[in-house]
Design goal:
This protein is mainly α. Helix content is 75%, strand content 0%.
Length: 211
């Protein structure tokens, strides 16, 4: 009885759809890749936490009522344009990556502080209003109107944990010595590619405002 009161009947479908969406690389993915290549899990774990918190905020907004914000074109456009500028800034930093003769040289680089990592991840997620649209669509379409507040909260906590654990898995995998040794000679190419992709995300946002 308790189990059914906390989890909606459509929870398996929601969990599957959410995880499949995580498999599609987005701006958060490339941010994690770039930092875990240079600083391993130690320098990217709080980025993962920040991204998960950003997603949690949008999940909470969705539960409380995202419609009013979504329908405010000025507010939505402000968040979207701010996010695009942020992507352009991060991307411009990554495309300046220089070739290193050995991956172990990166160990001498200063690992970003926990606060800096957290803000990087949080900004990446929170300045992407499409996250809110995704969660609103996901929860509205799959869970329907009869879902209770407790079931919405349980589903939200689940999605937060999955985002966090999945991103930590990506960072930990890329941070493995064997993986980094394999990628050593091309680390600057990977970072530059990630930068180009993030810049493309930002440009696409601005392009959508063109007549």
């Amino acid at each position: 009885m308790l189990f059914s009161s906390l989890l909606p009947a459509a929870f398996p479908m929601l969990a599957l759809a959410h995880f499949v969406a995580l498999l599609s690389p987005g701006q958060d993915f490339f941010l994690i890749v770039a930092h875990s290549l240079r600083h391993r899990l130690r320098g990217s774990r709080y980025i993962c936490l920040g991204i998960a918190i950003g997603n949690a905020i949008y999940i909470a907004v969705t539960i409380l009522g995202w419609t009013s914000i979504r329908d405010n074109q000025m507010a939505f456009s402000f968040v979207e344009i701010s996010g695009a500028l942020y992507l352009l800034w991060i991307g411009s930093k990554l495309i300046q990556s220089k070739k290193s003769d050995a991956i172990w040289d990166t160990e001498q680089e200063k690992v970003p502080s926990a606060i800096k990592q957290l803000l990087l991840g949080l900004n990446s997620a929170i300045l992407n209003p499409k996250n809110a649209l995704f969660y609103m669509s996901l929860m509205a379409v799959i869970l329907g109107n009869e879902v209770t507040l407790a079931q919405q909260i349980t589903s939200g906590v689940w999605m937060f944990l999955i985002v966090l654990l999945w991103n930590l898995l990506i960072a930990a995998t890329i941070g493995q010595p064997r993986v980094q040794t394999y990628l050593a000679k091309g680390i600057h190419i990977i970072e530059r590619s990630a930068g180009v992709i993030l810049i493309c995300f930002g440009v696409i946002v601005f392009a959508s405002y063109l007549p």
